[in-house]
Specification:
alpha+beta; single chain; 6 helices; rod-shaped; 217 residues
Length: 217
């Protein structure tokens, strides 16, 4: 395993790299690695100007403190990830081409590998760092129902231009709206609710006229 800092005249040369950085082989320094550094430092120190025991102890204490904080952070990440199991979430990830992609789904389970927590959604693995939003399932359902209703409503001709052939689509929209809870209906704007009523009133009028014409013949 490669050292992250050279030893010169018995001193550990600080070149901007801390003891918590990764080694050249990609692995992080642990206690054993740090002890190897101390042994190397002691072995190659200048016998005329030896490093004091106090300095060794100070270095080790600093490393232990950093390691404890890192361990605490890792445990918090794992606890946070575990609390997301069963939740509906949006993940902000990147495609192979580098484009941003949002993934929605339920967190089925989590794993902890290489010091990082991962969320599994539909058997796909995402790092916890890509978590964008936790979504309430009722909110998500209400939002989608309202969006689908408004989209279908916008596809209809103008109220004055509809015919009997549009009746089935209008009936379906009214049925969908009637089946929604008050919470779900709150996602539909007042203008769209009024537009739906205008369509249902118009189709009812056209059917009444058609029935009257049929009765007069």
């Amino acid at each position: 395993m490669s050292l992250v800092a050279p030893i010169e005249d018995g001193k550990l040369i600080q070149n901007g790299a801390s003891t918590t950085e990764k080694t050249k082989d990609g692995s992080k320094l642990d206690k054993d690695s740090f002890l190897q550094l101390l042994v190397a430092q002691m072995k190659y120190q200048d016998p005329l100007e030896p490093t004091s025991n106090t300095e060794y102890i100070s270095q080790y204490a600093q490393f232990s403190q950093v390691e404890s904080l890192q361990s605490m952070s890792n445990n918090m990440d794992l606890q946070r990830a575990s609390s997301l199991v069963g939740e509906q979430v949006y993940m902000k990830t990147a495609t192979a081409s580098g484009e941003t992609k949002y993934v929605y789904g339920k967190v089925d389970y989590v794993t902890y590998e290489g010091g990082q927590a991962y969320l599994f959604i539909n058997e796909n693995r995402y790092p916890l760092s890509e978590l964008e939003t936790i979504v309430d399932s009722d909110y998500y359902k209400a939002y989608n129902m309202a969006t689908d209703l408004v989209t279908s409503l916008n596809k209809l001709p103008a109220v004055g231009a509809i015919g009997l052939s549009d009746g089935e689509a209008i009936d379906a929209l009214q049925k969908t709206y009637d089946s929604m809870t008050d919470y779900q209906k709150s996602f539909v704007s007042t203008s769209k609710t009024e537009a739906l009523k205008a369509y249902t009133d118009k189709i009812a009028e056209l059917r009444k006229l058609a029935k009257a014409d049929k009765g007069s013949t």
